[in-house]
Write a structure and sequence with these properties.
The protein has 841 residues and is an alpha+beta fold. It contains 24 helices and 30 strands. The strands form six sheets. The chain has a five-stranded antiparallel beta sheet.
Length: 841
Amino acid sequence: MSESGDVSPEYVPPPPAERSRGTLLDTLRVAVVMLDTSGRVLLWSPLAEEVLGWAGEHIVGRRVGGLFGPAEAAEPPGPVIGEQPRLRSIPPPGRPEEILRDLLRTGRWDGILSLRHRDGHNVQVETRASLLVDGDGRPFVLASMVETSRLLTLEQDLAALDALFDSSPLGVAIFDRNLRYVRVNQALADMNGLPAAAHLGRTVADVLDPAVAVELTALQREVLATGRPVIDLVATAPRGAGHRSMSYHRLVDRAGRVLGVSATVMDVTERMHAAAKAERVRERLALLNDVGSRTAGVLDVRRAAETLAEALVPSFSDYAGVILHAEAADGGRLPSVPYSENTPMRQMGVAAVDWSPAVSRMLRRGQLIGFTADSVFGTALLTGEPRLVSSVEELRRTTFPDDPKVEAAVELGVNSLLVLPLRAHGVALGLLVVSRARGREPFDQDDLALAAELADRAGAALDNARLYVREREGALMLQRSLLPQSVPQPPGVAVAFRYVPGSSGAEVGGDWFDVIPLAGGRLAFVVGDVMGHGLVAAATMGRLRTAVRTLAGLDMPPDELLRRVNELGDDLARGQSEGWMATAVYAVYDPSTRRCTLAQAGHVPPVLVEPEPRPDDPGRCHARLLRLPTGVPLGVGGVRFESTELEVPDGAVLVLYTDGLVESRTRDISVGLERLRDTLCRPLHSLEDACDELLAIMEPGREPDDVALLMARLGGLPAGSTAAWTFPAEASAVRLARRRVRDTLVHWDLAPLSDVTVLLVSELVTNSLRYAHGPIGVRMVRGSSLLVEVSDPLPDPPQERTASDTDEGGRGLQLVARTSRRWGTRHGPLGKTVWFELALP
């Protein structure tokens, strides 16, 4: 209570019904008895009745001696903690007169009595008796009795509390409701550096540092008010001497009254040091794991160097730089000669906590790094041993005298630096240089060991990137050498193409394209994609392209060509034990008829852009996906390929491509196809610009695959460039064919070719008359050369044979072969066609 009698806010008194229960007196049950000097009972308290079972009306007025039972030795059930066992002497039975006599003589008596309970058993009580005088001068005896069993329990509890205070290594304190020390053990006194007595009556604000005391006082008040304990609160010890763990509990008596707060204090300095050490180990392992995971998947040397530097700042250092041998940085061979002052070294990766002009002078990506043989850099490269630079004098000897980069480091306050060789296969690829500036703890030997382990892992990652770059460059060189460097541009057709290799994080793929000139001024377009990546895919692609070009020269229909390639596949893709697969689309276009024949083998659909404007938007073209029979990829087998023939408007654009142009990790391929189609709806004035636009719309999150793109504007030949006739299988056919051919050549201003053309046509028409029984067709096309075709219903191709000097015939095909620039045969749905080409004059 406060002086005014109000109850303090920290304490809420229990209800009146509970104030009389649960106190210490209730636990002891002290019985009070009043006797006269002759031993007659004058007063018998209710508790005495509870202890001995005798009611007051049965005892008052009688002598107390009748309650004494037989003498027994009273001994505690076991040793009390902190005390020796005690024995109390009990007067023998029948001697209550002696006890009374001693009491009257001395004025007091105490001891243990064995009294008879009304039920017949003995009850041992510890008794305190005093001789008193009332107001009239009459003496009387007042005695208080407590059962020994209850006293022993209380003594054990008190002994345990004393032992806890006296022998516990933990600091223990009791605070009253005003948060003043009431009791303090020696352990806590030693922790606070004050005698135990100096604590009593004072608060933590009087004993501890003010900064700590304010927080603890607020905490104690909260525990006192709410009753919520505080467990294992770690705080700095007074004067910064380690760390302590503190626990606070509110003290409440048996009646529910708040008495104060108890505190337990434990020195946890070693535990905190161990935890800090474990945390440091954890952070180091996390750093190793982070650097390893971030650099392991990077397959570009420059990007790997950047990633390594960025991973170390600011978690491990303030500045970081990765210096590599110039040849290794470009994916070349490992350095084979010892490092010297002339070795080209280049700064590849840099990172800093903050960029400034001085930092830019010290760390500049791509700059050449020079050093002397006896410098820190030179020694680390030659010996392969990491170096710790911990002074400005050593820092100035890092590279060469008066190095501007070193002077910038000194200006930035760099006071600690690690120089770590990046090794692979026992050879140093370069150096990892990390540094810390003023305001940060310098590197120590533990940091040096960690950084050395980190540099070893980083060296392996950089070497993997170097090897990958080297292999990828070789595969790209192989692939580019196998792709066409230029394509034919026949009359009526314009072609543009692009090949984009995959990102540096992916191996080179097997995408390819080709434009193949065919007989009769026709063109074959092919785009394909071999499954897989790397040198094997590139080599397989080259063999497939060669096979397609070879079979295209036989003038096969597209479906037949794909079937033949599929049959040759196992030989073309030999060495791939897990099997092979490729997609392809093959198209043949004839400018003279403006017809295009296509076949697919599991490939993405071509797009045909028609020149007519859309009715709903005159400023845009109409681009449609050609829904052809998809077929299955080459290498699967079991499914026939089908050809589709369509007539192409003059000026239409055929677009063939690989899936890398439209695929994405996050979206369905239909989204990419629609984006492609929408882009092609714009006016295509230039095929080269259109190719660039299509590549520009590729989604950033697309698969890192390579892309092959082929665009062809399909047009017809100029009017009057084609002439065709059909003659009956009669003898007059030869004469009629000669006349039509000669007249047409004169009309085309090609009279110098008349004689040879008429001669060759007459030979071929004569052969058709001799062996075929049906109409004979003759067709001439004027383009970049003169094409002449002779067709008949006989499916068997003519056989060239060697005629002897006496043979009258058999020299027709020899004459065609020797006179024309090139010649050949092809099968059609109605028979065969023999064709030859003559160069224009």
